[in-house]
Amino acid sequence: MPLYRVYVLRNREGRFYVGLSDDIEKRRAQHNSGGSRWTKMRGPWTLAWQSANLSLGDARNLENRLKRQGRGKGFYSITGLPRKTHNPAAAGPRVQIPPPQPNA
After folding, report:
1. What number of other Cβ atoms are within 10 A of residue 25's Cβ?
2. Nearest one of 46, 87, 79 to 63, comparing CA atoms
3. pLDDT, tens digit, 9 for 90 and up, residues 78-90
4. Nearest alpha-carbon partner for 8 in 80, 61, 93, 72
5. Average pLDDT in the 68-84 region?
6. Does domain 5-78 have CATH number 3.40.1440?
């Protein structure tokens, strides 16, 4: 009976992808080569977290639990990944508005 692992991939923008596989490195390579529709144009992807070996049923339950959490507190407490509070690079360029000048 094959064993599976749940994994979390992260791209350079800090976005996550949650999946499961019996061969994580092979699956990550598929994500990076365009073999998955959602991750195709969002890579490159690096492995951020992986579970212990699990049965297929347990792996599916954990994968669904992580996906249901969104990126809320539960996701970070399960994976132990640090919560990113603010990514200035993702916010785009800042525009500075000069203060109003008093009428002379």
Report:
1. 10
2. 79
3. 888 888 755 555 5
4. 80
5. 81
6. yes
